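Re: the request from the purification team.
They wanted to know what the chain is likely to look like in 3D before they choose a buffer screen. I agreed to run a prediction and write the result into the notebook, where they can find it.
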Amino acid sequence: MDRILVCGAGGFIGSHLVRRLADEGFWVRGVDLKKPEFSASAASEFVVGDLRDPKVVRAVVRGIDRVYQLAADMGGAGYIFTGEHDAAVMHNSATINLNVLEWGTRTGVQRFFYSSSACIYPERNQMHPDHPDCSEASAYPAAPDSEYGWEKLFSERLYLSYMRNYGVAVRIARFHNIFGPEGTWMGGREKAPAALCRKVAEAPDGGEIEIWGDGLQTRTFLYIDECLEGVRRLMDSSVTGPLNVGSEEMITINHLAETIMGIAGKQLRIRNIAGPTGVRGRSSDNRLIREQLHWAPSAPLQQGIEKTYWWIAGKVREMQTGKTIVAGVAS
């Protein structure tokens, strides 16, 4: 079987991907600045290293047939949309992709998967909360709403350039808000589902939580297991992409919070405050992935949110009690 490298293997999606590939029987090398925070890596070999360093990349791509490149400088709205981290986001992520492509190509990597983002879509097409246009063809003329989105769009073109000029196979997915257990849930880089799960878990019944903006902005959220299914199907197909990998089940942020309250069995007040919110509406357009892969995500949001909430609620209880929570039981 192919020998696989997962870049960003210490992160949320990367660590789950390593586990899936290992379960499928692949030999997997993981690389990241750190090992996974919440469970041991399933990688056959894990390298703690900085992919901005060409020496690290030259070492980890040796003997590798396929690369899954998920490493990036990223976070939620509080990290991406304030403008305070723009230079780091663009420099760090672009440097990683330049290194991985150049040295992977030189050492004979046969196929690259690149995780792009729905943040590449033009802001002008996402001004209405109920009718966003995120079809793959709508990416141009380009006008992402963040430097994170601009870097992702640049790197898409970088991968496609290497495919044209050097003959390597490339597969590109545009992720739409992936969530699930073992993801970042505090500290400023967490995304909306995790942040809201934490806020609800921390609040006493009858209390209050804060939400940035008026809460009427819409999004779709995709559970990690369906994301991995889309990634594996795309990587093993003859389709280059880019393809959207996301859900079409739109929900307002206020409604998402209310859904989480229902799971927790709590009645809480929502206080909408000023803060970064990104575009007004965003949804995955899955027509192309259905056409080209004969598959699209279909699991209800509620299922994934329930699993995610109870995992985060356990982490909150651990912090509050100083005890490890295993399957709902303190030890």
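For the purification team: The radius of gyration is 19 Å.
Please add any questions underneath this entry.
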